[in-house]
Amino acid sequence: MTRTIVCSLAAGLMAAAVVAQQPASAPLQAQSQTAVQVAPEGPRPVIDVPEKIKDFGTVAKGEKLRAVFEVRNTGKAPLEVTQVRPTCGCTVASFDRTIPPGGTGKITAEVDTTGFSGPVSKAVLVFSNDPATPQVNVVIKADVRAFIEVLPRPLVIFRNVLQGESASEKLVLLSADGSDFKIEGAEASGGPYQLTYKEMEEKERVPERKGSQWDLTVTVPANAPEGMLNHKIVVKTNAPKAPEVTINVTGAVRPVVQVIPAQVNFGTVGGDALVGQNFLVVNNRQGAELQLSDVKVDNPNFSTEVIPLQAGQRYQVAVSMKAGVPKGTQKATVRITTTDPLRKLLEVPIQAVVQ
Questions:
Q1: Mean pLDDT of the chain
Q2: Rounded to whole angstroms, how far apart are CA atoms 124 and 109?
Q3: Which domains does the chain have, with CATH numbers?
Q4: 98-119 per-position pLDDT tens digit
Q5: Nearest-angstrom CA–CA distance, 73 and 50
Q6: Residues contacting residue 31 through CB under 8 Å, at least 6 positions apart
Q7: CB neighbours of 47 closer than 8 A, spacing ≥ 6?
Q8: How does 82-112 read in b/e, with b if 16+ C-beta sit within 10 Å?
Q9: What contacts 28, CB < 8 A, 6 or more positions away?
Q10: Range of lowest pLDDT (14-18, 172-176, 316-320)
């Protein structure tokens, strides 16, 4: 009897000890873990673009394509379109930034086909707050064709045009599908060009090509100013698929009398050392007489000497810097007086850094 009571007391004490050793926070931790696992997920936006590719088929070169993409929000939270990024050759006109649940928005993109030929595909990258699909790409496709061709190509290059002399280049405009058209006008933006056009006679036509053929002559006149040529010529026609044809012009009008190089730089030199010479070459066009009537330099630390290479055509001007020039940057201008009526005075800057 006594033994049984002792055993029961011992078992009770051991159970109490086990309960006392268990941390009081254990039940709270278990409850917390259970709460995280069963927490419901919040509402999310879902982006849906039903038609991701807009194919315009065959289009005329120069046509401006305008594509409108429908954007749906099939989720339960507002859809935020954070960024719409077009690739090269495409622009984004507008887009809806916020689309409510169940709502519909739009993205409008444009492609100018003036600079393209053949099949083109331009993508637009759409970024949003949809966690499952943060980026969606939409595409504009087309097959760009020039319904009026320019032969040999829609580019005119004037390589060696001398001031005081005119230069001309001829182009042929014809229809790609053999239809008839008329040129109604031609203009150059900012260029010094003279433009003339006429429909070609039978004997002048490109063989085995049907439809209208036109001759376009681009002329740089003799009184064009010196400088670079970089312009566009726009030819207007009555062709529905090619109301405007763009032709690029590049090149330069160079002076008849040229001095090379355009400036002289001695670089860094020692003040006591004898510095070598630099040379200028004055060139004149063939068949014209040129004399250098005077050559001066406006800094006494420099001197010049004229050396005829070909009488009336080419001269060499030697530029020297004297020894013992004070330290610092020395600048001067060589002024060459000529008998040419268009370039009576040539000026060449000079510089040297003396240590």
A1: 87
A2: 8
A3: 47-145 (2.60.40.10), 148-254 (2.60.40.10), 258-354 (2.60.40.10)
A4: 999 999 999 999 999 988 989 9
A5: 11
A6: none
A7: 71, 72, 73, 79, 126, 128, 130, 133, 136
A8: eebebeeebebeebbeebeeeeebebbbebe
A9: none
A10: 14-18
30, pLDDT greater than 70: no
Q: State what percent of residues in the chain have pLDDT above 70.
A: 88
For the record, the structure tokens of 163 come out as 């001031």
Contact at 8 Å (CB) between 233 and 188? yes
Torsion of CA 8, 11, 12, 15, to 10 degrees: -160
Model pTM score: 0.59
pLDDT of residue 341: 84
Beta bridge partner(s), residue 8: none
Strand partners, 65: 111
CB 182 within 8 A of CB 212: yes
Q: Give residue-wise pLDDT tens across range 270-306.
A: 867 667 789 999 988 777 788 998 999 999 999 999 9
Collapsing DSSP to helix, strand or coil, 202 comes out as helix
What are the tens digits of pLDDT across the range 177-203? 899 999 999 999 888 999 999 999 999
Q: Tell me the two tokens of residue 234.
A: 């726009």
How many CA atoms are closer than 13 Å to the CA of 336, on its beta-carbon side?
A: 29
Distance CA 243, CA 63 (A): 10
Burial class (CB in 10 A: 0-12, 13-18, 19+), 77: middle
67 and 86 Cβ atoms separated by less than 8 Å: no
51 Cβ contact partners less than 8 Å away, ≥ 6 residues apart: 69, 70
